[in-house]
Amino acid sequence: MLRLTEALKALPGVGEHTAERLAFYLLGHRNNLEELNRALSGARELGFCSVCGVITDLDPCPICSDTGREDVITVVERPSDVFLFESFSFYKGRYHVLGGVISPLDGVGPEDIRLDALIRRTEAGEVKEVIIALSPTVEGDATAFYLYELLKDRVRVTRIARGIPTGAELSLADPVTVKEAFLGRKEME
To answer: Is residue 98 within 8 Å of residue 76, measured between CB atoms?
Structure first.
């Protein structure tokens, strides 16, 4: 029991009490424990797509292998960002996972993220647009600007808009968000 609790506690966001509750639940529901064990064992077979960098059990991944996808690449920081976009079902392009963002304070430079692979993908001339979809942080903005400078002469480079979330009160938004929403405005359709 202690070993299971300690293993669960090592997961992000799981503290002592949550780990204990999960351990007792799993021990009380052996079928769930066996299914979790199979899923964890299967996770050992997962790797990263050699083209886009997403977590997959096939190489290249099903997204990169899909000939029906548009010749547009959305650049994201983490593999989980790809799954987020895919869950929306509106985007039919391809992806490129950087595996991080440029952060000099953390010792992460351009050579530490997957920029060379992205440049190679754009050199073939088949990519019509690169959409930068990085978090609006100092590091995300710096990485976006760096990418723009690298790619602007090869391909169209755009960035996802920032602004007010749907259903939010305008008066509750911070000034930077309101400014970004204002500057990212588009024609009404």
So the answer is: yes
